[in-house]
Design a protein that fits this description.
The chain has one domain: Alpha-Beta Complex (Spore Coat Polysaccharide Biosynthesis Protein SpsA, Chain A). The protein is 35% helix and 18% strand. It is of the alpha/beta class and 210 residues long.
Length: 210
């Protein structure tokens, strides 16, 4: 698929006491599961992190924020800035169970929108969304003007297509697809989900050492 996949890989989680990207789920790290999906799907896969040395083993381009220490808005801006393909699917490193079929469907609907973003229980999932590179100047302007509330940018600054739960339900169990690693309790839940998905053939062990 001619598109870029960008993984937002932050630092340590205060609740997990370690980097969520490296949380082990079914003998794989969360980021490994995502990389396996992205490299099978996209023309290009990149990682956005202000600790690039942590991700060298994955043999993927790793870029730091252009505007550091300004939260997820700067991460999305960096992904759009460095990605070479259009559009860009952006995903947090703590959401390993996103459906590749859903990603494809979201990308197919970007058209003239700045973004295609899921809404779950009334909350926009801004770090599991498709963005057009045409939105880059808007993110840059928001960063320069200290407009850092991501949902407000999606609602007020961008021309966003919001997907409802009904739109996404055909692609899988919503609670699985948008499951978020937050702490050790959710890590245990993630391992149970991974076991169930593995039985269904939806998780494949990646070989990213080559």
């Amino acid at each position: 698929m001619k598109a870029s996949g960008a993984i937002l890989a932050g630092g340590k989680s205060s609740r997990m006491k370690f980097n969520k990207a490296f949380a082990r789920i079914d003998q794989q790290m969360s980021i490994e599961i995502i990389i396996n999906k992205f490299t099978s799907l996209f023309t290009e896969t990149i990682i956005i992190s202000n600790e690039p040395e942590l991700y060298q083993e994955f043999n993927l381009p790793v870029y730091t924020d252009v505007y550091p220490r300004l939260g997820p808005v700067s991460g999305i801006h960096a992904a759009l800035y460095y990605a070479t393909c259009e559009p860009v699917f952006i995903l947090g490193c703590d959401m390993p169970f996103i459906s590749t079929q859903l990603i494809g469907a979201m990308i197919s609907r970007i058209n003239n929108y700045h973004s295609v973003v899921p809404s779950i229980d009334g909350f926009l999932q801004a770090t599991a969304a498709v963005y057009s590179k045409s939105s880059l100047p808007i993110f840059e302007s928001c960063l320069k003007n200290q407009k850092l509330k991501l949902t407000r940018i999606l609602e007020e600054e961008l021309n966003s297509l919001v997907l409802t739960e009904d739109d996404m339900r055909p692609f899988g169990e919503i609670s699985d697809m948008f499951f978020n690693l937050n702490d050790n309790e959710t890590l245990e839940q993630a391992r149970k989900i991974a076991g169930r998905l593995k039985e269904s053939g939806l998780i494949v062990r990646p070989n990213i050492s080559e």
